[in-house]
Protein backbone atom coordinates (compact mmCIF):
# COMPACT_ATOMS: atom_id res chain seq x y z
CA UNK A 1 0.00 0.00 0.00
CA UNK A 2 2.74 2.45 -1.01
CA UNK A 3 0.53 5.23 -2.48
CA UNK A 4 2.80 8.21 -3.18
CA UNK A 5 6.50 7.81 -2.39
CA UNK A 6 8.85 10.78 -2.14
CA UNK A 7 12.60 10.74 -1.82
CA UNK A 8 14.60 11.97 -0.04
CA UNK A 9 12.82 12.77 3.23
CA UNK A 10 15.42 15.31 4.33
CA UNK A 11 18.08 17.25 2.44
CA UNK A 12 20.51 20.07 3.20
CA UNK A 13 21.95 21.95 0.24
CA UNK A 14 24.42 24.76 -0.10
CA UNK A 15 23.37 27.83 -2.07
CA UNK A 16 23.94 27.20 -5.77
CA UNK A 17 23.84 23.41 -5.58
CA UNK A 18 21.35 21.46 -7.63
CA UNK A 19 19.17 18.50 -6.74
CA UNK A 20 16.18 16.51 -7.89
CA UNK A 21 13.27 15.48 -5.71
CA UNK A 22 11.73 12.21 -6.80
CA UNK A 23 8.06 11.22 -6.61
CA UNK A 24 6.36 8.00 -7.68
CA UNK A 25 2.76 6.79 -7.33
CA UNK A 26 1.38 3.31 -7.77
CA UNK A 27 -2.33 4.15 -8.00
CA UNK A 28 -2.46 4.63 -11.78
CA UNK A 29 -3.43 8.28 -11.28
CA UNK A 30 -3.29 10.60 -14.26
CA UNK A 31 -2.46 13.85 -12.45
CA UNK A 32 0.55 14.66 -10.29
CA UNK A 33 1.53 17.80 -8.41
CA UNK A 34 4.37 19.47 -6.55
CA UNK A 35 3.57 21.85 -3.68
CA UNK A 36 5.71 23.70 -1.21
CA UNK A 37 4.61 24.50 2.32
CA UNK A 38 5.98 27.41 4.31
CA UNK A 39 4.85 28.57 7.76
CA UNK A 40 1.63 30.58 7.56
CA UNK A 41 1.40 30.14 3.77
CA UNK A 42 -0.52 26.93 3.40
CA UNK A 43 0.35 24.81 0.38
CA UNK A 44 1.38 26.58 -2.82
CA UNK A 45 1.42 24.86 -6.17
CA UNK A 46 4.78 24.82 -7.96
CA UNK A 47 4.05 22.68 -11.04
CA UNK A 48 1.56 20.05 -11.99
CA UNK A 49 1.05 17.44 -14.67
CA UNK A 50 -2.55 16.82 -15.60
CA UNK A 51 -1.59 13.76 -17.62
CA UNK A 52 1.48 11.94 -18.88
CA UNK A 53 3.38 14.13 -21.31
CA UNK A 54 2.04 17.47 -20.04
CA UNK A 55 3.28 19.88 -17.40
CA UNK A 56 2.02 23.30 -16.33
CA UNK A 57 3.20 26.05 -14.06
CA UNK A 58 1.45 26.66 -10.78
CA UNK A 59 1.54 29.63 -8.47
CA UNK A 60 5.28 29.66 -7.63
CA UNK A 61 7.26 28.00 -10.48
CA UNK A 62 10.34 30.25 -10.54
CA UNK A 63 13.57 28.43 -9.74
CA UNK A 64 12.12 24.98 -10.44
CA UNK A 65 11.78 22.56 -13.32
CA UNK A 66 9.80 19.35 -13.57
CA UNK A 67 9.79 16.16 -15.59
CA UNK A 68 6.89 13.75 -15.98
CA UNK A 69 9.04 10.74 -16.73
CA UNK A 70 6.12 8.35 -17.20
CA UNK A 71 2.67 7.92 -15.69
CA UNK A 72 4.12 6.88 -12.32
CA UNK A 73 6.93 9.38 -11.82
CA UNK A 74 7.10 13.17 -11.53
CA UNK A 75 10.37 14.80 -10.49
CA UNK A 76 11.13 18.33 -9.30
CA UNK A 77 14.54 19.86 -9.99
CA UNK A 78 16.23 22.81 -8.34
CA UNK A 79 19.00 23.92 -10.71
CA UNK A 80 20.64 26.45 -8.40
CA UNK A 81 19.24 26.30 -4.89
CA UNK A 82 18.57 29.51 -2.96
CA UNK A 83 17.81 30.01 0.75
CA UNK A 84 14.28 31.13 -0.27
CA UNK A 85 13.67 27.56 -1.43
CA UNK A 86 14.00 26.24 2.11
CA UNK A 87 10.65 24.59 2.61
CA UNK A 88 8.75 21.35 2.95
CA UNK A 89 7.89 19.90 -0.45
CA UNK A 90 4.91 17.64 -1.03
CA UNK A 91 4.16 15.55 -4.06
CA UNK A 92 0.55 14.50 -4.65
CA UNK A 93 -1.45 12.60 -7.19
CA UNK A 94 -5.10 12.38 -8.15
CA UNK A 95 -7.39 10.70 -10.61
CA UNK A 96 -9.55 13.76 -10.81
CA UNK A 97 -8.85 16.71 -8.52
CA UNK A 98 -12.56 16.72 -7.85
CA UNK A 99 -11.86 13.86 -5.48
CA UNK A 100 -8.84 15.41 -3.85
CA UNK A 101 -5.26 14.28 -3.61
CA UNK A 102 -3.18 11.52 -2.17
CA UNK A 103 -0.07 13.11 -0.68
CA UNK A 104 3.45 11.83 -0.24
CA UNK A 105 5.09 12.14 3.16
CA UNK A 106 7.07 15.25 2.22
CA UNK A 107 10.70 16.33 1.80
CA UNK A 108 12.15 18.83 4.23
CA UNK A 109 14.74 20.86 2.29
CA UNK A 110 17.10 23.35 3.87
CA UNK A 111 19.30 25.59 1.73
CA UNK A 112 22.16 27.24 3.61
CA UNK B 1 -6.97 35.03 -9.18
CA UNK B 2 -8.40 32.18 -7.14
CA UNK B 3 -8.09 32.75 -3.41
CA UNK B 4 -8.87 30.87 -0.20
CA UNK B 5 -8.72 32.56 3.21
CA UNK B 6 -8.95 30.71 6.50
CA UNK B 7 -9.62 32.11 9.95
CA UNK B 8 -8.48 32.14 12.59
CA UNK B 9 -4.86 31.35 11.70
CA UNK B 10 -4.28 29.96 15.17
CA UNK B 11 -6.57 28.77 17.94
CA UNK B 12 -5.87 27.39 21.41
CA UNK B 13 -8.69 25.80 23.41
CA UNK B 14 -9.17 23.36 26.27
CA UNK B 15 -10.09 19.74 25.85
CA UNK B 16 -13.86 19.35 25.65
CA UNK B 17 -14.46 22.72 23.99
CA UNK B 18 -16.23 23.08 20.66
CA UNK B 19 -14.41 24.91 17.86
CA UNK B 20 -15.46 26.39 14.53
CA UNK B 21 -12.94 26.95 11.77
CA UNK B 22 -13.76 29.22 8.85
CA UNK B 23 -12.90 29.14 5.17
CA UNK B 24 -13.92 31.75 2.62
CA UNK B 25 -13.09 31.59 -1.05
CA UNK B 26 -13.07 33.45 -4.33
CA UNK B 27 -12.73 31.09 -7.25
CA UNK B 28 -13.66 31.05 -10.89
CA UNK B 29 -16.51 28.61 -11.39
CA UNK B 30 -16.41 26.72 -8.12
CA UNK B 31 -16.48 22.95 -8.31
CA UNK B 32 -15.75 21.60 -4.82
CA UNK B 33 -14.28 22.46 -1.42
CA UNK B 34 -12.16 20.07 0.60
CA UNK B 35 -10.96 19.98 4.21
CA UNK B 36 -7.72 18.29 5.24
CA UNK B 37 -6.10 17.60 8.61
CA UNK B 38 -2.33 17.86 8.83
CA UNK B 39 -0.46 16.57 11.85
CA UNK B 40 3.27 16.06 11.57
CA UNK B 41 3.44 14.94 7.98
CA UNK B 42 1.18 14.89 4.91
CA UNK B 43 -2.38 16.23 4.92
CA UNK B 44 -5.11 13.65 5.27
CA UNK B 45 -8.55 14.03 3.71
CA UNK B 46 -11.53 14.91 5.91
CA UNK B 47 -14.44 16.09 3.76
CA UNK B 48 -15.38 17.12 0.27
CA UNK B 49 -18.33 19.49 -0.19
CA UNK B 50 -20.02 20.32 -3.44
CA UNK B 51 -23.59 21.24 -2.56
CA UNK B 52 -24.74 24.15 -0.48
CA UNK B 53 -26.44 23.51 2.85
CA UNK B 54 -25.72 19.80 3.11
CA UNK B 55 -23.75 18.90 6.23
CA UNK B 56 -21.04 16.29 6.05
CA UNK B 57 -20.38 14.52 9.33
CA UNK B 58 -17.76 12.14 10.66
CA UNK B 59 -17.87 11.46 14.37
CA UNK B 60 -17.23 14.74 16.21
CA UNK B 61 -16.32 16.59 13.01
CA UNK B 62 -18.82 18.20 10.68
CA UNK B 63 -18.68 20.66 7.83
CA UNK B 64 -21.08 22.68 5.75
CA UNK B 65 -20.82 24.79 2.64
CA UNK B 66 -22.60 28.02 1.72
CA UNK B 67 -22.14 28.61 -1.99
CA UNK B 68 -24.10 31.85 -1.97
CA UNK B 69 -21.89 33.48 0.67
CA UNK B 70 -18.76 31.62 -0.55
CA UNK B 71 -17.66 30.04 2.70
CA UNK B 72 -17.46 26.82 4.63
CA UNK B 73 -17.09 25.97 8.30
CA UNK B 74 -15.55 22.99 10.02
CA UNK B 75 -16.92 22.20 13.48
CA UNK B 76 -15.26 19.97 16.03
CA UNK B 77 -17.23 19.14 19.17
CA UNK B 78 -15.89 17.72 22.46
CA UNK B 79 -12.32 18.36 21.31
CA UNK B 80 -9.51 15.99 22.29
CA UNK B 81 -5.75 16.50 22.35
CA UNK B 82 -5.54 14.29 19.26
CA UNK B 83 -7.45 16.96 17.33
CA UNK B 84 -4.41 19.23 17.58
CA UNK B 85 -3.28 19.81 14.00
CA UNK B 86 -3.27 22.25 11.12
CA UNK B 87 -6.59 22.22 9.28
CA UNK B 88 -6.42 23.10 5.60
CA UNK B 89 -9.22 24.20 3.33
CA UNK B 90 -8.90 23.91 -0.45
CA UNK B 91 -11.11 24.59 -3.46
CA UNK B 92 -11.23 23.17 -6.96
CA UNK B 93 -12.08 25.58 -9.77
CA UNK B 94 -14.30 24.17 -12.47
CA UNK B 95 -12.28 22.63 -15.27
CA UNK B 96 -9.01 22.85 -13.35
CA UNK B 97 -6.94 19.85 -12.38
CA UNK B 98 -5.65 21.35 -9.15
CA UNK B 99 -6.51 22.47 -5.63
CA UNK B 100 -6.02 25.98 -4.29
CA UNK B 101 -5.24 25.93 -0.56
CA UNK B 102 -5.81 28.41 2.23
CA UNK B 103 -3.11 29.27 4.78
CA UNK B 104 -4.39 26.75 7.29
CA UNK B 105 -5.62 27.06 10.88
CA UNK B 106 -3.31 25.72 13.59
CA UNK B 107 -5.51 24.23 16.31
CA UNK B 108 -4.02 23.38 19.69
CA UNK B 109 -6.05 21.48 22.27
CA UNK B 110 -4.72 21.74 25.82
CA UNK B 111 -5.60 19.05 28.36
The largest contact between protein chains, plus residue counts on each side, is: A-B, 24 and 25 residues
> What's the story with the biggest beta sheet of chain A?
7 strands, mixed
SSE ordering of chain A: EEEEEEEEEEE
Order of helices and strands of chain B: EEEEEEEEEEE
| Class computed from helices, strands and strand pairing of chain B | mainly beta
- Computed structural class of chain A: mainly beta
The proportion of strand residues of chain A reads over 45%
Mean pLDDT figure of chain A: 93
Helical region count of chain B?
0
Kindly estimate the percentage of residues of chain B that lie in beta strands according to DSSP: over 45%
Uncertain regions spanning at least 5 consecutive residues of chain B: none
Number of strand elements of chain B? 11
Number of strand segments of chain A: 11
Shape of chain A: globular
Assembly context of the chains: heterodimer
Helix coverage percent of residues of chain B?
under 10%
Could you walk me through the main structural features you see in this protein, from its secondary elements to its overall organization?
- The complex is a heterodimer of chains A (112) and B (111).
- With 112 residues, chain A is mostly beta strands.
- Chain A has strands spanning 4-7, 10-13, 19-25, 31-37, 43-49, 56-57, 64-68, 74-78, 87-94, 102-103, 107-111.
- In chain A, the strands form two sheets. In chain A, strands 2, 4, 5, 6, 9, 10 and 11 form a seven-stranded mixed sheet that branches. Chain A has a four-stranded antiparallel sheet with strand order 1-3-8-7, with no helix packed on it.
- Chain A starts with a strand and ends with a strand.
- The mean pLDDT of chain A is 93.
- Chain B has strands at 3-7, 10-14, 19-26, 30-38, 44-49, 56-58, 61-66, 71-76, 85-93, 100-101, 105-110.
- Chains A and B meet through strand 4 and strand 5 of A and strand 4, strand 5, strand 9 and strand 10 of B.
